[in-house]
Specification:
Shape: globular
Strand content: 15-25%
Low-confidence stretches: 1-17
Number of helices: 14
Structural class: alpha/beta
Number of strands: 18
Distance between the termini: 60 Å
Radius of gyration: 21 Å
Helix content: 25-40%
Mean pLDDT: 94
Largest sheet: 10 strands, mixed
Length: 467
Amino acid sequence: MSAGTRSDSVRGGGREIGGPSVVIDNAYIAPVIGAEIPSGYLIVRNGRIESIGAGRAPAVPDAEHIDATGCLVTPGLVNTHHHLYQWATQGLFQDSTLFEWLTGLYRIWARMDAEVVYGAASAGLGWLALTGCTTSSDHHYIFPKRRGDLFEAEVRAAGELGLRFQPCRGSMDRGQSDGGLPPDEVVEDRDEILANTAELIDKYHDPAFDSMLRVAVAPCSPFSVSAELMTESASLARSKGVRLHTHLAETLDEEEHCREQMGCTPVEYMEKLGWLGEDVWFAHAVHLHDADIRRFAETGTGSAHCPSSNARLGAGIARVSDLLQAGAPVGLGVDGAASSELTSLVGELRQTMLFQRAVHGPTALTARQALEVGTLGGARNLGRQFEIGSLEPGKLADIAVWRVDGFRAAVQDPVCALVFGPQPPLTRLLVGGRTIVENDELRTVSHDAIGAAGAVARNRLLGEESR
């Protein structure tokens, strides 16, 4: 893409996309792919970016006009790892390792129901939107019996807010009696897991170009899932044409666990099970060997970097700059709020950049590389790099407009102001051209109501726990 105007068809994905016409004018545009435009415009029609160029926008009859003077325009951010239900258990086990934290929380999470999940997901997704997120995945892997339809609850929350959503049907079938970490009461039968996962894909997964909802298959982790469930999940996902996700190499304890019980490293174990490939992305991938990084790059296997959660649990710092240099896909995740309280997705750009520099020096990761990880890198993890993640004609109009005037105007470079500093005000967040956030307020749902819903979910879950 050049700084000049280019206009492509806004048809694709087998159907026409509806949506308002919008003109964003007088903006500094950081498209991620192509040259930055110090003063330019974007035109949105039918949910797609129709054109992008330098200078003043041409007249577009009946379009909404957004004057972005003093603003930086970027692609909407993409969150590739989360556990939305954990919004209801923030602030607990503050000084624990991952295994201590999990052991303390499993039995509390076992009491969740669909109401808890709906309230927690509503608040968690609303918070993401307020921090620049237009597409989010979620990894839900605990399904207590007779507690309602937990998967539907989070799908409904995302639909009401209007974010693109990629929920991952998680699972655990290896409890403590089989050498796993979770207590037996939170694991499920393997055949029931696979049958329900197939049903959810058939019910919810939409492969269309402009899809608002896709489903992935996501057994929880090597220490909570049998080898049989891992391999059968991979076969199911590939037969249905959906993606695969799991936790991997988050802590050194996990590596020791894998070596003791499987006789190999976590990445070697995943490769034996058929879990490397362009349709796979792993959460965390903190403790990778050089050979692991080479295999990720060779196979196109992605990873979701969660810097705040990894730091909160003392897990370590992922080798993001090494993965990028090797050519492996890397996106960002805020992770569950129980290990990453009130984490801003745009703030994870800064954390990613600073952590890499702290280990590898000031050239390890630039502001623009961090922005790409948080946008196009995440889109690659989710298999949506041709639809979202950069500002290009024909792509979906998922756009963030950040105010970088006022105090931030003293920063020479607007992208530096976004990544090096605290979160700027979010003037507008568009998903498919539809306004989700305006001037730091949610517009599709009641801003105050979904904030309160998170506290209600917490009280419901912990109230049950205390009785």
